[in-house]
Recover the amino acids of this structure.
């Protein structure tokens, strides 16, 4: 849930990167952490297994500076992709303001993408959140694979909720910031509608994301 501190004039929004194991969630955060202006980011915390998979979460506070008189910060998290860490995924989802679902474009990952998206819907519901009410963007990652499914195939098989989408090759950084910009703008638009503010806040915010 968006946290607004009027005393410090600060807005904090939580975005969670969700998806099957090794789809590129952690890579997205690493790219943002490495390429964003150093005065805009905090320390990234990563806890991994011996197999170098995310065990708990990655946390990256991203400070976008003052927008419309309020300091706007995004806290970026990822969840573990493995099914046996479902309780942890559910915990990290608590209070989410936006979701980036990172889908793997490999043909063999179709069912895992679908299962993970369905799992997201269930875990949000158990946290009192409705997938239809929370901003969500699907990132079609690993577009550089020689046998990658077409976007049309992915849309038909995975995107049954018709979320807005982006394409990415996270390991090279391609598409990472456009994805962040899209989900950030959706979150702020929802916040603006709730507060009755204009689109100026959203436009200024977008211009601050690399």
């Amino acid at each position: 849930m968006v946290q607004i501190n009027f005393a410090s004039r600060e807005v904090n929004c939580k975005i969670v990167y969700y998806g099957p194991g090794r789809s590129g969630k952690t890579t997205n955060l690493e790219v943002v952490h490495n390429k964003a202006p150093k005065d805009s980011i905090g320390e990234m915390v990563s806890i991994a297994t011996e197999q170098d998979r995310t065990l708990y979460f990655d946390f990256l506070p991203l400070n976008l500076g003052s927008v419309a008189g309020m300091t706007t910060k995004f806290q970026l998290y990822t969840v573990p992709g493995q099914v046996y860490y479902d309780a942890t995924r559910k915990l990290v989802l608590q209070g989410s303001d936006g979701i980036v679902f990172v889908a793997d474009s490999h043909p063999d990952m179709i069912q895992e993408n679908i299962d993970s998206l369905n799992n997201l819907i269930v875990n949000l519901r158990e946290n009192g959140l409705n997938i239809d009410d929370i901003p969500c963007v699907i990132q079609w990652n690993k577009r550089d694979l020689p046998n990658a499914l077409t976007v049309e195939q992915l849309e038909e098989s995975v995107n049954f909720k018709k979320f807005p989408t982006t394409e990415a090759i996270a390991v090279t950084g391609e598409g990472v910031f456009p994805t962040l910009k899209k989900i950030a703008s959706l979150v702020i638009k929802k916040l603006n509608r709730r507060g009755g503010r204009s689109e100026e806040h959203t436009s200024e915010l977008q211009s601050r994301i690399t």
Notes: The beta strands are 3-5, 10-18, 59-67, 70-78, 98-104, 136-141, 165-167. The mean pLDDT is 87.
